[in-house]
User: Fold this.
Amino acid sequence: MGGHVEYFLADNISLGLEFKYLFAGDQTLKVGSASTTVNVSNPLVSASLRLFYPELKPRAPAEMADPAPARFYLGFRIGGAIPTNSELAPGIENRPLPSAIGGVLDEYYGLAVGVDFGRYLGAELAIEGYELVMGLKGVGSISEYAIYTFVPQLRVRYPLAGGRGVPYAIGGVGVGHVEINDRKPNGENLSLHANDNSYAATVGGGVEYFVTSNIAAGVESKYSYTGGHTIRINGHSQTATAQAVLVSVGLRVYFHDFGR
Assistant:
C-alpha cells in the first residue's frame, strides 16, 4: 500500500518516485534446529523511469535534421560476459559463476551517460560490471571476483534507414576496479586480498533501432580489458588481468535535444 508521483519529460518518458509499505507479518526463520520469528514488514522507497509506446506526437529522426542537434541520453544494458583468459594470474583460475548461462556466459550489467554530437559522433561514460569465480589450482573455488569498469568512450555512428537504424563503433580507456566477495568454503582459511584499481580499455560496436524518436533498442558486443591488478594469497602476490567479450541488449533513452 502506498503512493506514487511522476513527472513527464516527454509525452512518452516519465520519472517517478514511489513510497509503499509491505505488510508481510511474522515469518519463521529456521537455521539448523533453531527457529525464530521475524517480522518482515517494511517500508519501500524507489525511483522509476517509465517508457510509453507509441509516442502521442511522433517526430522525425533527429539524426536527419540539418544541422543535427546534440542529444543527452541514458543507456541501460544487460547481457553476458565471456572471459577470454582461463587464468587471472598463474595458478589462479578464471571459473564461471554457478548461474552462468551454458556454463560460460556470466551475468553482465551496464549503464551509460552520454551525448550525441550532431549526426556521426558521440561520447559517453560507460559504467559496467560482471563477476566470475576465482579458483586456486589444487584447492578449488575460493571466492567470487567482481570486475567493474568506468570508461569514457567515443561513439562513432552512421545513421541509416532515414535515421531509424544506427550502426556504431565504440572505444575508450578508463579505470577498472576489482574486489572479492562471497568467499567459498575452500577459501575461508586463506588470507586473501584482491581489492584495487587499475587501468581499463574497451573496443567494440553495435547497432540500434529507434522505436520512437527518443528511445532506441539495440545489441552490442565489445572487448573489455583491465590489467595490473594485484591478488595476494597467504602473503604471495601476483599481477592479475581480466579480459572478456561482453554481449548485451539495451535501451538508449534520450532526455533532451540541444539546438533543435
In short: The chain has no helices and 16 strands. Residues 1-52 form one domain. The mean pLDDT is 92.
